[in-house]
Write a structure and sequence with these properties.
It contains four helices and three strands, in the order E-H-H-E-E-H-H. It has helices spanning 7-12, 14-24, 42-49, 55-59, and strands at 5-6, 27-31, 34-39. A hairpin with a 2-residue loop joins strand 2 and strand 3. This is Antitoxin.
């Protein structure tokens, strides 16, 4: 799987981009070196957009690079005086 498609490559190889989204999962397209959009299958879109889907359910099938880790460092005390 490609990590990301540059916009010009995505345009030039749109059929391949669509095929990759169908077979391998969501595909990221970058513009000027920044993540711009994600191309995903209609089935995946419906799964993610269902009103009764919890965030946990939606993220359960996400690639590992989309998983977040919580910063567990202590928060300094704040004085409101």
């Amino acid at each position: 799987m490609k990590e990301a498609w540059q916009l010009q490559d995505a345009k030039a190889h749109f059929s391949e981009l669509v095929e990759a989204a169908l077979k391998e999962g969501p595909q990221t397209v970058t513009r000027r070196g920044e993540n711009a959009v994600v191309v995903l299958s209609h089935r995946e879109y419906l799964r993610l957009s269902q009103a009764d889907t919890t965030l946990d359910e939606a993220l359960s099938g996400a690639p590992a690079e989309l998983l977040f880790q919580r910063d567990r460092s202590s928060i300094p005390a704040v004085s409101l005086e």
